[in-house]
Sequence to fold (141 residues):
Amino acid sequence: MDQLIAGSLAERRAGTLLVSVFGAMALVLVVAGVYSVITQAVVQRRLELAIRSALGAGPWRVVALAMRTALQPAAVGIVLGALAALGVTRVMTSLLFEVRALDIVTWAGACAALLTACIAAGYLPGRRAARIDPMAALRTE
Fold:
């Protein structure tokens, strides 16, 4: 009897595994993409950050500006993405096996991964920009 039950559930489990693998791959690609886009946006503002530093902004102020560049679009994107995902989960319910459509742990984990990528993408280039000599940055432009 156990073999019959396992055989009938094998196709659904395979589909669930496939969706899970693709979901994990998509999350890794999204995190890498978000990190690179936000890092590029902060790097493009390097001259502005150097000017602010030359005018007296402290290093933490420069890092805070870089973090704001990273977190504002991230917050909007996460809210809009969560709303869109709520609508899609109704369609995806038939593909889920032993998982609820509104699995809070999974949703929180995905949001935390994106926020972590955005924080790192804003902080690391912001910290580098805070250490740039303002005169050297202005000379290169």
